[in-house]
Write a structure and sequence with these properties.
Blueprint lengths: L1 E5 L5 H11 L6 H7 L7 E7 L2 E11 L2 E9 L8 H14 L7 E7 L3 H9 L3 E6 L9 E7 L3
Parallel strand pairs: 4-5
Antiparallel strand pairs: 1-2, 2-3, 3-4, 5-7, 6-7
The structure holds coenzyme A (COA).
Length: 149
Amino acid sequence: MITIRKGESKDAPAIALVEKEVMKAPWPLEVFESDLGEDSPWVFLVAEEEGELLGYLDYMVTFDSSTIASLAVRKDAQRKGVATLLLDRMEEELRKEEEAVLTSTLEVRASNEPAKALYRKRGYLFVCRKKGYYEDGEDAEYYVKGLIS
Ligand code: COA
């Protein structure tokens, strides 16, 4: 059974491995060690099955808005609903915030059709294109989802 829990410092190596396998420009281990630290504003959620980390999502809440920094699922675990479970859990966590969180936003590579399909399915709406957003010059597409109707 796939379960979702909050990420902890000890998850940094496994998260960095998933990142390296599936991301075009992976963040290095040190970034995860720091972002999983106690004073970090980033919230990590990890998906596991039988103790193996399948994927992760991290997001940050700023006042009434939240931003997804990253979402990645191991190749051999893709198309099994792992990202969907992670996004469900994120929304559940956001609903528990003391101050209402009204929106979830994200940037995604313009060429990343699988991720764009996922976000559209989840109710994210395209807002605009951000020219040359990524270090290699690729544009980002900016999406937003309203969390309270
Ligand atoms: N092609 C088309 N649609 C896709 C897709 C693909 N390769 N992957 C997911 N989707 C869409 C489908 O609508 C899918 O529903 P379906 O399987 O019933 O058709 C829906 O998203 C849910 O898919 P799910 O199984 O929950 O997604 P996943 O666990 O495979 O993870 C990604 C999706 C994008 C996170 C995963 O492919 C990944 O890690 N990619 C590399 C990293 C990345 O691009 N991250 C996003 C950065 S912003």
